[in-house]
Amino acid sequence: MNQLSPKQLKNLYQQGKNIMSLLRKFEESNQNTEEIIELSYDLQAGSYISALDDESMAKHKAEYGTAIAKEILALCNPKSVLEAGVGEATTLREVIGNLPEKTKAYGFDLCWSRLAHAKLWLNRNSISNVNLCTGSLFKIPFRTNSIDVVYTSHSIEPNGGYEQPILQELYRVTKKYLILLEPGYELASQDAKIWMKYHGYCKNLVKVSREQNYLVTKHELFPVTTNPLNPTAITIIEKKSSSESTECSVLACPKTSSPLWQYDEVLFSPEALCVYPIISGIPCLRSENAIIASYYSELSQRP
Ligand SMILES: C[S@@+](CC[C@H](N)C(=O)[O-])C[C@H]1O[C@@H](n2cnc3c(N)ncnc32)[C@H](O)[C@@H]1O
User: Fold this and answer.
1) Residue 21, C-beta contacts closer than 8 angstroms, at least 6 positions apart
2) Which residues line ligand 1 (CB under 6 A)?
3) Whether pLDDT at 247 is above 60
4) Class of 52-238 per CATH?
């Protein structure tokens, strides 16, 4: 059990400690829970944006995002894209910068602080067409078949052991293509495999996809990668969805996957009869954030 408060962990993070492996040790497990992932990544908030001050890092990020956009455009001209586990939107920004301007862009992440950094940074860079919210890969707050292209970039990574429920959720939300840029365990060297196992990283994404009868059309190492111990692999899954979702409201209640109604300060789920807060402009759409408010719609006025 973790004996340390988030404040103590923040001090340790600022001293350079790896919080995720520390918390795994407390749990005596080689798997990361969502709580471990949220805490350790939230403490890192702002670090991906600061890293771009380094010219070589900024160049790598631009190449990475451009290469992802190229993969997307080779498949379709998407009306909408979603990065699941968007972090500070440093990848998403490069991806959408290489897609047609009218493409609607969405991102969600476990960590509110990372999204808050992302929102400020995107505003500073005059990028206003990105919609961000908090959410979990296990209960994605988007409607079924709502997004043309859903992609991940190293966000399934720390959820090793939970590949199947996460892929199922990602596939549910996808309308046309699901693209995974994740650790290529099966294609990696022995040293990389040992490193990935130690960190509790995901594996077997293709095997799990095929077990679910998903159509995997590509699986290979991605040419743009930085860490030889964590090589990125690209996996493309094609989905032929039969039903069309409405274009206008893509957000969904994470408890029921049903539509949400927008009010000034909250999103209301008429199905689950609960509200989700909007903090500093970021809708908080994790099921744990729900406040039961059975009469909210009767007592409040929609804008
Ligand atoms: C390695 S970072 C990558 C961030 C971003 N995709 C990028 O390319 O810069 C992994 C991100 O995935 C998020 N993440 C991991 N597990 C998640 C989960 N179960 N639900 C939602 N987000 C998750 C983390 O909070 C973190 O921001």
Assistant:
1) 198, 199
2) 34, 37, 41, 48, 83, 85-87, 90-91, 109-111, 114, 136-138, 153-155, 157-159
3) no
4) alpha beta
